[in-house]
Structure formats: structure tokens, C-alpha cells
Design goal:
Aldehyde Dehydrogenase, Chain A, domain 2, single chain, 22% strand, 526 residues, 7-stranded mixed β-sheet, globular, binds ligand TXE, Aldehyde Dehydrogenase, Chain A, domain 1, 37% helix, 2 domains
Length: 526
């Protein structure tokens, strides 16, 4: 475990798939060894406790209740999670309110310094965070090591720095008055995040809120809470003042709903499913809360015959199956110009068949486990629906059963379906798994109509070498993000968010800092 090669250091337990214990990382209680195991240096011997972080201390839920935390690759319980309720949210809000004035008074530079210290500690422990994220979520360790955790660190650093550069506007009203915009933090911010990119999306919300001067009551997904608690431990080590960040573990209907409805939380930033977003809006809107909703997607990928074929192929495999297809930005409907369709279909299916489904701890694994048993069944039910609708499964479409300790894991073979029109349920409903459809199109107009023909509008991807088409179609896409000849190429300064049922508001850059502040115009007569 002392090897300097990061990937070598994530080698799994030889007897089961689990990863090495990291004593510094989380609270762990020893479990009785599983049959056949001798080594005690692996997580298979531990039951992790995932606690609330309220007022600067870690504690179980007040009720003493726990939820099971599952390791998707093993299909078994490995953690217990504080099953909190409104009474814990109440404590967290009180702690956040108490900490607010001093956090604002610390000033931009002081808040910057505190967030940078937290970021440095996450970076120091990147390996442990990546292993934990993989175990909790099922994603390949190398993906967490290369994407999730570095991006979480970048989120903290980006917003810590951005707040130093925030400008405020001034307007001179002829010779009568000068107006200036004064931005103050909204107060206690509620941040609710999902399971697909756990620490990445958690920090995407809390970092701008904290940098802007808000104190925070945050709730990670109960399906993947592990790295949020590890972050809490780093916040304590970094000397973040108690109560500035509070993390309440537990379910959406209990904790998320209590945060949403709390009268002392004037702003809610949420990422998750569209149906949940609607429930949150129904409660928060009549209370006149600020709302940022990042919801689902059914993103189109438009492939024109004049594209760079090899680059398009490589990136389209990635945009389809990265993180088991569980990224709201993944392309799930691939529309291909008819003249290219046969070549695309053959090459794409061949590449997809070559993807390795397996142990997330192994460096060569492309596809890990999906996040939960319920999600496994949801995705497989969608494949069954696609067949009922007349779709032909070109590859995948089934559960993958691995041997040994991963035998109970929730793995699905990457799946490509053809033969379905744009209006069917398979091409309208978000599947959020390793499943894509491919469809030919004849004209640009037909492609645009199909691309825009869902209730979602998060992201779209265009593959073409025709410069005027790039601009023309980019403006026609009804989505908040348009990638041309790339996918997931992110600049944290850019506005991020969806149209239609994919959400309300924009995150990223100054948009996020503005969300967590209230603008006040001050008009001084000259
Ligand atoms: O989302 P939920 P889930 C989509 C995707 C996926 C579906 C469901 O289609 O299949 O959402 O995923 C909390 N009040 N996306 O079940 O339920 C919940 O505890 C307040 C897209 O994870 O929306 C969790 O912390 N909060 C998405 C968070 O909301 C509530 C990424 C998200 O959970 C709540 C993930 C309530 N009533 C899933 N109910 C994206 N766009 O990135 C639940 N929550």
C-alpha cells in the first residue's frame, strides 16, 4: 500500500472486491471477518458509520435510527447512515444561523483561505476519497480518481478564488444620482445533491454558497453519503468554524423535505430527478424562496457524415457509458446522418461490446456497478420496454453476473438499441443507465426536430466539421449546454443548467455566486 503508483495503490482485497482501509478516512467499527478472510486491512471487515456534521461535531441522528448503506459492486450493506429527521435539520439551521455573522465578517479573503485549506486536505487524501466514492457508488476507482475527486477539489478552489474577483455594478443616473449594486449573502442556504457524482455535485453547491458568505445546511443523497462525511472530517481538520457547513444525513422525504420547507432557509439549490424538483418547487415557490433546480436530461447526440469519425466514435462511447451512463449530461439518443449510419452502427457496437464490465477497483474496468438494486431493475425494465416498443437490442441489455465476492453486485452490460422512433417512451423517458438508442436521420431539420422533441433540455452534442452548421444548430438546440465536437469539456466559469423540464436557473461561475446572494440597489442622490 506504500506504492507511489496511484492505480497500484487501489488494488482490491484478494478475497473480496473491497478496497484497503484508510484509518484516517472515516469512523469504522470492526465487523466479524467474512468466511475465508484473514487479512484485516480491508474494508470488508468494517461497518462504516456515516454521521451528521452539525455545529462542528459529528453525531448520529437524534432519534438514534440508522439506514443501510450499500456497496453496489458487492450488493451488500457496508455502512450505516444516520437516519435523520426534522429535529436534526432544526439543530443544523440553528447552528448555521449562529455561525452566519462571524462567517460574513471573516470577509472574502478569510473565506477563501478556509475553503483552500479544505481543498488541500481533500487533495492530500485523494486516494482515500476516490476509493470511498467507488465503494459507495459502484463507479470505477480510476474514474473517481481522475474525475470526481479532482473536480470536487477544483470546485472548492474555483469558488474560493472567484469570490475574490466578484464585481459589483454602478450606474450613474446623469447628474442626479449614483446607483450601486450591493450583494449580500442570502443567509442559510439549503443544498440537496444526488448520488451519481456524489462529492463532485455536493461541492458544486456548497462551495459557491460558502464563498458567497452563506452558511449551509446540506443533504447528500442517502444512497451515497460516504464522501460527504469524509469532507466534514476535513473541514474539522482545516478549522472551518463550527456551524458554517452542516451536513444532515438521511432520506429525501424526511431531511430534504424539512430543509425545503424550513422558514429560515431562503434559498434551495437542488440537483436530482425532475419529479423531486417539482415537489421541491411546489413547497418552496409559495414561500418565495430562491430556487436553483438542476434536473434530468434525455440528451441528443447529432452525428453528421462530415465529422471526424474516430474522434466522434471515441467520445460518443464515453458520452454514452461514462459512470455507467449515470450522468445527467450523458448522451442517450444518438442521431446519425443516414449515409454514415451503417458504418457508425458497426463500429459503435463493436467498441461497446469491447467495454469491460467488472470490478471497480481494477484499473482496466470501463463499466462498474449501477448505484442500487432498485436502479438496476429500473434500467432493465426500460430495456424490456424498448423491446416491447419494437426496438432491437444490438448489444447488452442484460445483467452481468460476476464471480466470487462481486457475485451479488449490480452490473449491467452496456446496451445499444435501434429501430425506435423519436416519440416512443424509450426515447422520451430518462433511463439514467448504460443504455443508448441509435437512430438514422435524413435532413438537418429532421435531426433538430428529433433532438428537441422531448420535455428535457439539458445538454446536446453536435459532431460536424461544417463551421456554419455548428453555429446554426447550436442556436437551434433547446438545451442549456451545447457541446460541439466534444463532450463534458467543462470550464467552471460557464453557465450550467437546463431548459424546459431539465431545470430552472444556472449554476457555475458568477451565476452561482449571484444565486447565493441578494442584490440590493443603493441609490444616492447627487
Ligand atoms: O433522485 P432524487 P434519485 C435523476 C435520474 C434518476 C432519478 C432519481 O433520472 O433516476 O433522478 O434519482 C433528495 N424533498 N437524476 O432517486 O430522488 C434525495 O434524498 C427534498 C438526475 O437520486 O431526486 C437526494 O438527496 N429532497 C440527476 C436528492 O433529492 C428530496 C442526478 C436527489 O434525489 C426529496 C441524479 C424531497 N421530497 C438523479 N426526495 C442529475 N440531473 O444530475 C428526494 N430528495
Amino acid at each position: 500500500m506504500n506504492c507511489s503508483n496511484r492505480l497500484a495503490r487501489v488494488s482490491a482485497c484478494p478475497l473480496c472486491s473491497c478496497v484497503p482501509r484508510n484509518e484516517r478516512v472515516t469512523r469504522q467499527a470492526l465487523l466479524p471477518p467474512r468466511a475465508g478472510h484473514r487479512a484485516t486491512s480491508y474494508l470488508c471487515f468494517t461497518m462504516q458509520e456515516i454521521l451528521n456534521y452539525i455545529g462542528g461535531t459529528l453525531a448520529p441522528a437524534r432519534s438514534g435510527a440508522w439506514l443501510d448503506g450499500f456497496a453496489p459492486a458487492e450488493g451488500r450493506v457496508f455502512a450505516r447512515i444516520a437516519d435523520s429527521g426534522p429535529e436534526d435539520v432544526e439543530l443544523a439551521v440553528a447552528a448555521a444561523e449562529k455561525a452566519g455573522p462571524a462567517w460574513v465578517a471573516l470577509g472574502r479573503q478569510g473565506r477563501h483561505d478556509a475553503l483552500m485549506r479544505v481543498a488541500a486536505l481533500v487533495e492530500r487524501d485523494l486516494d482515500g476519497f476516490a476509493r470511498a466514492e467507488s465503494r459507495d457508488n459502484g463507479k470505477p476507482v480510476h474514474l473517481a480518481m481522475e474525475v470526481d475527486i479532482p473536480r470536487a477539489i477544483a470546485n472548492l478552489r474555483f469558488f474560493a478564488t472567484a469570490i475574490l474577483h466578484q464585481e459589483s455594478a454602478a450606474h450613474i443616473t446623469d447628474d442626479q444620482a449614483v446607483n450601486y449594486t450591493d450583494r449580500q449573502p442570502v443567509g442559510v442556504a439549503g443544498c440537496i445533491s444526488p448520488w451519481n457524482l456524489p462529492l463532485y455535485l455536493f461541492t458544486w453547491k456548497i462551495a459557491p454558497a460558502l464563498a458567497a458568505g452563506c452558511t449551509v445546511v446540506a443533504k447528500p443523497s442517502e444512497i451515497t453519503p460516504l464522501t460527504s462525511m469524509m469532507l466534514a472530517e476535513r473541514c474539522m481538520e482545516a478549522g472551518l468554524p463550527p456551524g458554517v457547513l452542516n451536513i444532515v444525513q438521511g432520506t429525501g422525504p424526511k431531511v430534504g423535505a424539512a430543509i425545503t420547507a424550513h422558514p429560515s432557509i431562503p434559498a434551495i439549490s437542488f440537483t436530482g430527478g425532475t419529479a423531486t424538483g417539482a415537489r421541491i418547487a411546489a413547497v418552496a415557490a409559495p414561500m418565495f424562496k430562491k430556487l436553483s433546480l438542476e434536473l434530468g436530461g434525455k440528451n441528443p447526440v447529432l452525428v453528421f457524415a462530415d465529422c471526424d469519425f474516430e474522434e466522434m466514435l471515441k467520445e460518443t462511447v464515453r458520452s454514452s457509458f461514462s459512470n455507467q451512463g449515470q450522468i445527467c449530461l450523458c448522451g442517450s439518443r444518438i442521431l446519425v446522418e443516414r449515409s454514415l449510419y451503417p458504418r457508425f452502427k458497426e463500429a459503435f457496437v463493436q467498441r461497446v461490446k469491447a467495454l469491460r464490465v467488472g470490478d471497480p477497483a481494477v484499473a482496466s474496468t470501463d463499466i462498474g456497478a449501477v448505484v442500487s438494486e432498485a436502479h438496476l431493475h429500473k434500467v432493465l425494465n426500460h430495456v424490456a420496454l424498448a423491446k416491447e416498443e419494437g426496438g432491437a437490442v444490438l448489444c447488452g441489455g442484460h445483467r452481468v453476473e460476476l464471480d466470487g465476492p462481486l457475485a451479488g453486485g449490480w452490473f449491467i452490460a452496456p446496451t445499444v438499441i435501434e429501430g425506435l422512433g423519436p416519440g416512443c417512451r424509450t426515447n422520451q423517458e430518462e433511463i439514467f443507465g448504460p443504455v443508448v438508442t441509435i437512430q438514422p436521420f435524413d435532413t438537418e431539420e429532421e435531426a433538430v426536430q428529433a433532438a428537441n422533441g422531448t420535455r428535457y433540455g439539458l445538454a446536446s452534442v453536435l459532431w460536424t466539421s461544417n463551421g456554419s452548421r455548428m453555429h446554426r444548430l447550436a442556436r437551434l438546440m433547446k438545451s442549456g449546454i451545447v457541446w460541439v465536437n466534444c463532450w463534458m469539456l467543462r470550464d467552471l466559469r460557464t453557465p450550467f443548467g437546463g431548459m424546459k423540464h431539465s431545470g430552472v436557473g444556472r449554476e457555475g461561475g458568477m451565476e452561482a455566486l449571484n444565486f447565493f446572494t441578494e442584490a440590493r440597489n443603493v441609490c444616492i442622490k447627487l
